[in-house]
């Protein structure tokens, strides 16, 4: 089971290497915060190029969103091409597409060169017609995609579905086991002299002088580094700028046993909003979807909704064997932020806003960030530049930030329950105490009590009953039942009451 969350994904029985926590002060050329696929991919590439790198992870490598993905490797972008062209010019969308297409090649090259046994497989992907689309809209999307250089074709029937629905086929996509893949990269990275510290939480980041950064850990050790790369799901070093331009969403996944072998495996995803996505792992069908803003879920069970959808679309699924959730960050203009951190600080780099395409985004980051550090031209860096000005995503920017502003009204709303007696075992609720709210988690023999105020920018956290965590609906910070921060942008735990 994940250190951070209660549910278990289809991947999380993979045995990953263990590393000690930091025991003494460190000095290095580059420090990377975050032991998921992005941090490890960048770390390996930096070490391969001869750089001295230290990577720190607050929990265990792969224990964050990397182990909670469905690991589609596709150049079908998170938003449809027609919608992207309303936000960006055709050249920008073409570069965005090319980066993700090339990212699959980068991943495959690492698999081959390092002989990583991670079930990497090339296969076709199909964008099929959902209930919100008709044939004309599908044809419009085909034309829009081709105008941006995408190689795809029309098919009248989507494979494996009960219904006869048309689709756009993207050839030569891929899938793999994400934890087996990062295990291979970790081995290669450490063989090149890279250093990894697990169980090492960064509590403060300071600019020591014009050339160096100082990272302070919970154990009161420090790491001095010239270059700082923040590869957490959302940046923990950036307090405002990026967090007003991307927005946290919970996403859900399930795995079903199938009643018969899948002869022609493929990737599937539909046009609905939120969309559904499907792949196959051995004798299981894995599906994801039912996304909603973090801390703002509806009363409907997302797993029940996913299961209803799957059983309607496929006639060969049996029992549910896994169900889990994850967190993704949606950028306001649908393109992730990879590159130099916005602001005046020198030598700070981030990778975030990967949305639902984090696996290929990690491969892109592994080329852009080392190239920026080495002052080498990169064909994708302009498109992913975190300092790029907003273009035509202003409507989403305004609407999403109005949503954030509304969450601060939780300061004056009533308690979830009237008394502690109403809180079931292994459940959390908010209770108003005077002018503030308090988190109460009902443990086996007591109530864990913490301030409900998120330590990032003061939002009121909400109880996530699926993962048994306190989630901030403003910018996506998450805390466990004891109030310990498990996901940024917050760096500090919930305060004692």
- Helix amount, in percent? 10-25%
Main pleated sheet: 9 strands, mixed
What is the rounded Rg? 22 Å
Instruction: Please work out how many helical segments DSSP would assign.
Output: 9
Number of strands: 24
Q: Distance between termini?
A: 30 Å
The residue ranges in which pLDDT falls below 50 over 5 or more consecutive positions are none
Portion in beta strands: 25-35%
**Mean pLDDT level:** 91
Q: Per CATH, which architecture of the domain at 121-174 and 248-331?
A: 2-Layer Sandwich
Q: Specify the CATH class of the domain at 121-174 and 248-331.
A: Alpha Beta
Q: What is the structural class?
A: alpha+beta
The backbone outline, from C-alpha atoms, is: globular
Assign the CATH topology of the domain at 121-174 and 248-331: D-Amino Acid Oxidase, Chain A, domain 2
Q: What is the CATH superfamily classification of the domain at 121-174 and 248-331?
A: D-Amino Acid Oxidase, subunit A, domain 2
Quick overview:
The protein is of the alpha+beta class. The protein has helices at 37-48, 81-87, 90-113, 135-147, 178-191, 302-313, 358-373, 381-384, 394-407; strands at residues 26-33, 53-56, 72-73, 121-128, 152-155, 167-175, 195-197, 202-207, 213-217, 222-230, 246-258, 267-270, 277-281, 284-293, 317-331, 337-340, 348-352, 428-433, 436-442, 447-451, 462-464, 469-471, 478-479, 485-487. Among the domains are: 121-174 and 248-331, 2-Layer Sandwich (D-Amino Acid Oxidase, Chain A, domain 2); 409-487, Rieske Iron-sulfur Protein, CATH 2.102.10.10.
């Amino acid at each position: 089971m994940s250190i951070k969350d209660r549910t278990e994904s289809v991947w999380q029985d993979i045995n990953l290497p263990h590393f000690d926590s930091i025991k003494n002060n460190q000095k290095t050329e580059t420090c990377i915060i975050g032991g998921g696929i992005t941090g490890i991919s960048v770390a390996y590439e930096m070490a391969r190029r001869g750089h001295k790198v230290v990577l720190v992870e607050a929990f265990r490598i792969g224990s964050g969103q990397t182990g909670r993905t469905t690991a589609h490797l596709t150049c079908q972008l998170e938003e449809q091409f027609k919608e992207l062209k309303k936000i960006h010019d055709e050249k920008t969308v073409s570069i965005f597409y090319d980066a993700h297409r090339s990212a699959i090649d980068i991943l495959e090259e690492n698999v081959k060169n390092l002989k990583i046994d991670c079930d990497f497989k090339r296969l076709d992907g199909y964008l099929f017609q959902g209930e919100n689309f008709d044939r004309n809209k599908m044809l419009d999307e085909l034309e829009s995609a081709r105008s941006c250089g995408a190689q795809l074709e029309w098919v009248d029937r989507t494979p494996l579905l009960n219904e006869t629905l048309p689709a756009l086929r993207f050839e030569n996509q891929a899938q793999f086991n994400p934890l087996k893949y990062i295990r291979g990269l970790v081995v290669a990275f450490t063989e090149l002299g890279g250093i990894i510290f697990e169980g090492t939480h960064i509590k403060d980041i300071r600019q020591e002088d014009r050339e160096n950064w100082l990272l302070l850990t919970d154990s009161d050790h420090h790491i001095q580094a010239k270059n700082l790369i923040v590869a957490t799901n959302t940046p923990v070093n950036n307090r405002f700028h990026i967090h007003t331009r991307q927005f946290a969403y919970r996403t859900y996944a399930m795995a079903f046993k199938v009643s018969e072998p899948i002869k022609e495996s493929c990737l599937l995803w539909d046009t609905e909003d939120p969309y559904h996505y499907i792949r196959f792992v051995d004798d299981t069908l894995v599906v994801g979807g039912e996304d909603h803003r973090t801390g703002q879920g509806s009363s409907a069970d997302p797993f029940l909704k996913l299961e209803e959808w799957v059983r309607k679309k496929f006639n060969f699924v049996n029992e549910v064997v896994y169900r889990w959730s994850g967190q993704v960050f949606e950028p306001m203009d649908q393109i992730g932020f990879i590159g130099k951190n916005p602001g005046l600080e020198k030598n700070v780099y981030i990778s975030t806003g990967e949305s639902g395409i984090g696996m290929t985004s990690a491969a892109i980051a592994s080329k852009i960030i080392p190239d920026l550090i080495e002052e080498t031209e990169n064909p994708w860096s302009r498109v992913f530049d975190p300092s790029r000005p907003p273009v035509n995503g202003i409507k989403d920017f305004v609407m999403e930030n109005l949503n954030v502003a509304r969450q601060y009204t939780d300061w004056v709303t009533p308690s979830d329950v009237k008394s502690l007696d109403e809180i079931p075992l292994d459940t959390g609720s908010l209770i108003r105490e005077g002018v503030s709210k308090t988190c109460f988690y009902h443990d086996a023999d007591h109530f864990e009590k913490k301030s409900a105020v998120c330590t990032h920018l003061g939002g009121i956290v909400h109880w996530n009953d699926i993962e048994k965590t306190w989630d901030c609906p403003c910018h996506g910070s998450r805390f466990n039942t004891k109030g310990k921060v498990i996901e940024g942008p917050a760096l500090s735990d919930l305060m004692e009451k």
